[in-house]
Amino acid sequence: MSNFYASRKSRWDFRRTEEVLGRRARNFFSTCYNLLMSKKLKKSEAVKSETKTTFDLSQETKNSIWAVFSFGLVILTSLAFFNKAGAAGALFNNLTKSLFGWGFFLIPPAFLILGISFVKSVSRKIYTSAILGTVLFVLSFLAIFYILGGGDFKVRVVQGGYFGAIIGFPVLKSLGFGASFIALLLLLLVSLLTALNISIVGLIFKKKEEGVLEPLPDKVVIKRGTEIVDAKAEEKLETRNQKLETRTTTPVRKSPGDEDKEFVLKLSKSDKWELPSLDLLHTDTDQPRSGDINAHVNIIKRTLANFNIEVEMGEVSIGPTVTQYTLRPAVGVKLSKITSLQSDVSLALAAHPIRIEAPIPGKSLVGIEVPNKKFALVGLRNIIEEDEFKKGNAVLPLGLGRDVAGFPVFASMEKMPHLLVAGATGTGKSVCINSLILSLLYKHSPNLLKFIFIDPKRVELTAYNGIPHLITPTIVDPKKAVNAMRWAVKEMEAGSRDIFSYNAKLATKKDQPLMPFIVIVIDELADLMASHGRDIEGAIVRIAQMARAVGIHLIVSTQRPSVEVITGLIKANITSRIAFQVASGVDSRTILDASGAEKLLGRGDMLYQAGDTAKPRRIQAAFVSEKEVKDVVKFIKAQAEEMVPEEDDTEEKAETNNLSIPDAVIADDKVKSGDDMGDDMYEEAKEVVVQAGKASASLLQRRLRVGYARAARLLDILEEKGVIGPGEGAKPREVFIGRSTDDGAVAQEVPSEDLDQHEI
Fold it and tell me: Average pLDDT in the 359-384 region?
């Protein structure tokens, strides 16, 4: 028994060993097989990729090849029917007569329809629809021949062929003769619509469709609004200029306010003041170069067609910075599908960044703005020379620049009535402000226009010091800027409620000067908001709310478009905004409440959001060099010096003609009285330190119940007034003024060596 069990155990161990070895062998071979198959798969994928790369043809080329092949079959099959194609043609003729019956002549028309379908939709994949429509066209015709024939099945097959029996036999058995004939006619019509990819309106009512939808002109190119390449565009431009002339030369008076504006303009022109000469400014330089326009048009159309978006290309307008390609999408195409393909169009054109405007305001078109290969500078002189600037109804016209079509763009300061300019550093904000200031200087004399310039950067606006239009020299100190804004608020609240009606009343009186317009220009708002945020914001909001009627306008600029600088109150009260290039879409939404400024090109490329429009308008700002600014300022200063002796004869008239901020408002804090120091707790703080005999910020915080910032400010004021001494680390400051006794004597005298330095 033991031997028996031993033999059984040995056989069992051998079987287990055999199973383990077999399993391991199978795993080994399966691993080798997987490695071998993966290598083959990678090799086949590489071969496929190489083959795809080598024979990569565009869709237009493929469809063209299929169209040529279809038209070739039309010729060959026609020759076969006339026994002109040899033995192969005779064999084809006999085969088609048995399969198609009486409809053997339909083969050339079927290939003709197939070729036309490939030509008509040359940039789309239409293999399935074109072939299916052509096959249905032939089968429906053969089925009609089948049901029209009389007799049994064999006779009908001779008439309609075996292919005609495929559709004709079941239709005739199920519907009968009349209904089957109508059904086959409808199937024939559907096959034509499917093969040619046209609508029923385009097939039957073609003339009516052309009457409803007028085709766009082909490739109308306009060079900066002046140089015309196409005759149709020239006629269009002439009609636009005629409308513009009739609009500018025939003023329409709809309200008394308009009459007052015209009166102010006439009076300013009759003044003795001579406006600067246009020779001081530069004209437009260079011509923009946009590249191959026809190639870009084809690329845009083909790229959209690859995504099944049929468009009709319209006119092409070349601006100084970008070229706008207009297109009209087919009926039923969503605009969101076009705007979502912005990156794909940019890749196809090899241009970045592009901007898609869908739709263009006032037109049923979509605009694709592509950067030019070469930019052109826009000169301020060409814009000021326009009749719309000289003869327009705007009292305070601003020459902004040129749009994407090259036409000049103007704005009216009294309609804005305030303007916010924002953008990243070096994108053209300061140059834009200089062009706006020069636009106003080329329109009005100092008697009708006054400026307050606030420039904490001390770079741009200090060049205008000395011109008679300035109420005060350019303010560079934030403290003085706060005082000047407060003065403007007081002038606004104390002045007349309507500057036009006020000037109209003064015009009836002799020797009565008119109330001038005041334009406050702030070159960098972020510096003021960082130091005196609450005061500056309050003054700006107050002026923006009420100063429109009294003729006070704001132009605010900043290079930091954040919510800490451009607050909600400022945005709500300044609706007209200019956005230059910014770093992100968040900054663009902070300025314009919409994205788009992050896609600008810089160097004066901007989006202008007017207060009465829903969408911003892309404009290339006018360029003004530093030399032009200096030449204009020099001319104005020289003329002002020549007119000084005549004004000295009547001092009272000079005082009434020229506004001036009192010296106590903008002077240094050292010459101000206690009330002018900007803190109404000065006297209380002075009494506290005199009674205590020492001065510290913590003392003022406890006694006056104020914060540390105000306490430190009060200490600075007391030090400048000579009440206390300078700080000595953690020690309390020394008090120079003693406490008064009952008999009026001073308990502590100021040291003799400090009498010349501090006032008692």
Answer: 89
